[in-house]
Amino acid sequence: MRTLDKISFVILLGFLVSFSCKKDLKFREYLTENVIIVVMDGPRYSETWGDSTHRNIPRMSNQLSEFGIISTQFYNNGPTYTLAGHTAITTGFYQEIDNSGKELPSYPSIFQYWNAKYVNSADRSWIIASKDKLQVLNNCQFDEFNNKYEPSTDCGISGLGSGYRDDSITFNRVIKVLSENHPKLTLINFREPDYSAHTNNWGNYLKGIKSTDEYIYQIWEYIQHDFYYKGKTTLFVTNDHGRHLDSIAGGFASHGDSCLGCRHINFYAYGPDFKYGVILNNKRELIDISATVSELMHLNMEFGKGDVMYELFE
Questions:
Q1: pLDDT the model gives residue 122
Q2: 96: closest CA among 108, 83, 107?
Q3: What is the C-alpha separation between 195 and 254, in angstroms, rounded?
Q4: What fold does the segment set 32-312 form as a domain?
Q5: By CB neighbour count within 10 A (0-12 exposed, 13-18 middle, 19+ buried), where does 265 fall?
Q6: 293 sits in which H/E element
Q7: Are 111 and 86 in contact (CB under 8 A)?
Q8: What stretch of H or E contains 19?
Q9: Per-residue pLDDT, 10
Q10: 170 contact partners, CB below 8 Å, separation of at least 6
Q11: CA-based end-to-end distance of the chain
Q12: Angle at 183 between CA 181 and CA 185, to 5 degrees
């Protein structure tokens, strides 16, 4: 073979190998068929994983940690209030959004992308929330998705504008939806400990963290024993925002600025495609959740700004 032909052959071979690898990565298959995201609304890191005793999250610390991944450097790098935090989780985009439920997210969520790609059936994806205002996460302003591909919702007492409900009701609704509808993609919001913290009641704030920790454990247990979900489900646990540091604006009772207390949040991940018993210290953020869900579910979220957390994967 002439020298020029050899060079051309080597270049062509290199291109084919490179293309093949990229193709394999793009279409990589995962064991995950279902994703559940649980949001514990508004605890400070210092009262959860940041406390070395983990006294307020005994279930996650003693039972769940050995089966999943904990990130010690996870942040909300956008607006630190409820709707903005949840919008970042579901759309991969930090948006200054009205916090009362009067404004839709700008861009489509993982729910709308999933429904558009796989099956436009609302009961296969769900938003179940103690806070009624989170119902706006089912839609967006973007023309191609506005009023289309919406997931089912069960938010607040009876939907947007109806008021908040107790987390015990939300937990029961979650189990009912998982058992009857078997959604592929689910977001769950528990209003505690944010609700009690806003009343400036330290004892109830801590109690809210502990009760939510128990609900999270019960959901994890359900996954282990349900035929539809066992071995096929990835679980993410995080919060939408933290709370002020003690030295800032009344401390734990509020949130909403860029202090470390508001930005530093929790992250736990468990799933058949992930490592287990691991603690990660690299910096990640809320918008990376939707990017990672997109990788698992093979979605193309064109407006999402997050990065896939490849370090979670086996």
A1: 79
A2: 83
A3: 10
A4: Alkaline Phosphatase, subunit A (3.40.720)
A5: buried
A6: helix 287-297
A7: no
A8: helix 3-26
A9: 37
A10: 128, 129, 130, 188, 189, 190, 191
A11: 43
A12: 160
- The number of residues in the chain equals 314
**Tokens 């706006």 belong to which residue?**
136
Q: Which residue intervals of 241-286 are DSSP H helices?
A: 260-263
DSSP label of 24: H
Total-model pTM: 0.91
Stretch 182-189: mean pLDDT: 98
Using H for helix, E for strand and C for coil, what is the string for 116-133? HHCCCCHHHEEEEECCHH
Q: Spell out the residues 6+ positions from residue 173 whose beta carbon is closer than 8 angstroms to its own.
A: 128, 154
DSSP secondary structure letters along 81-124: SHHHHHHHHHHS------TTS-S--SS--HHHHHHHHT---GGG
Residue with tokens 């809320």: 286
Q: Would you state the structure tokens that stand for residue 298, as one six-digit string?
A: 């093979």
* Contacts of residue 80, Cβ cutoff 8 Å, sequence gap at least 6: 241, 242, 255, 256, 257, 258, 262, 263
Res 51 pLDDT > 50:
yes
Smallest Cα–Cα separation from 70: which of 314, 304, 281? 281
| Closest of 308, 310, 303 to residue 113, by C-alpha | 303
Question: Are 262 and 256 within 8 A, CB to CB?
Answer: yes
